[in-house]
Give the backbone structure.
Amino acid sequence: MNNTWLPWTADMVDEELVANILDKTKMKTYKKGEVILHQGGISSNYFLLLSGRVEVSLNSSNGKKKIVSIHEPRCFFGELIMDKESNYFN
């Protein structure tokens, strides 16, 4: 795997990268409060947030919700982005 830094944080993705990604993928819009990924689910998708905010949270066995992070626009998120075996950015 290439050891270069991956743009996970807000405002670190330039227009050229956004255009390149949109050229190769489909854009989907989610409504406020809509679940994008479910805890424990498996997905090979990654997401690039272009507008709005995304809350990442976990639910404990007793039902308590813990907010892990809040993603801002121009941020990648999803399981694929955390997978060290992924070669998408190499």
Q: What stands out?
A: Residues 58 and 64 are 8 Å apart (CA to CA). Strands lie at 47-49, 54-59, 65-71, 75-77.
